[in-house]
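My main concern about presentation is that the manuscript never shows what a single data entry looks like. An entry of this sort, consisting of the sequence and the corresponding backbone structure tokens, reads as follows:
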Amino acid sequence: MLGKTDFYTLNKVTENEDSTSYTITINKNHPIFKGHFPGNPVTPGVAQMDIVKELVAKHLQKEVSMEEMPSCKFLAVLNPETNADVDVILKFSKEDAQRVSVVIKDAEVSYLKMVAVYR
């Protein structure tokens, strides 16, 4: 659970009619970036997916595990030295409250788009 470490800081939560946005700052000095990759840090895809899982759990107010992932696209490199502040936008399905569409983005770039089902 990355949120229980200093991997990222949750700065703001914004709830809209059809989505919830979490503004976070990724810690560019976290030890994970010493190996991934020295001199050119890249936020691992699995770390981005763990952030999503933690924020889904926070939103649903319960522990969750991913049951299904119909789609997942990493669209750009998330370098914490140049793009530490991002929004994680969760949009839950009206038909299935456990199904969520997710985007991790900043003002200019989308880094991750995925759809997953958490139980």
In short: The chain has a mean pLDDT of 95.
